[in-house]
Design brief:
Helices cover 20% and strands 30% of the residues. The N and C termini lie far apart (53 Å). A 3-stranded antiparallel sheet has the order 1-3-2, covered by helices on one side. The protein has one domain. By secondary structure, the chain is α+β, with helices and mostly antiparallel strands. The protein is built from 1 helix and 6 strands, in the order αββββββ. The chain is flat, with a radius of gyration of 16 Å.
Length: 122
């Protein structure tokens, strides 16, 4: 039974990874995708919002879902606001830091800077 459960879990994770990669592969600049927080933010994307959703598990008050935005393809000089939960992609530079309630990725309330304004520099 344990072996069957492990196979099912492996197949489920593989399907989720393939779905995410197919979704993110054809995204245009500015497109957004919502995923569970335990998935890594792919290269060229940045987190822009966090919240709690039962579809990604329950039992904690930690935000467990995030929205990511595709940044690849924006022209040089573009400025966007992103959460500081992922590093800016290559070619982007932090301009300023600030607090945003939509970027709270921890259950512990804090008004420390958790967001960045970033600019495409190359």
């Amino acid at each position: 039974m344990t072996r069957l459960r492990n196979v099912a879990l492996t197949l489920g994770c593989t399907a989720a990874a393939l779905t995410l990669s197919m979704t993110t592969a054809h995204a245009a600049p500015g497109d957004t995708v919502a995923i569970c927080a335990n998935s890594l933010t792919p290269s060229g994307w940045a987190d822009v919002q966090w919240w709690n959703d039962y579809s990604c598990g329950s039992g904690t008050f930690n935000p467990n879902m995030k929205r990511m935005m595709q940044l690849t393809g924006y022209p040089v000089g573009t400025v966007v606001n992103v959460c500081a939960s992922s590093l800016p992609p290559a070619g982007w530079q932090e301009v300023s830091a600030f607090y945003s309630s939509g970027c709270r990725y921890s259950a512990v309330p804090s008004f420390n800077n958790n967001s960045w304004q970033i600019k495409r520099v190359y």
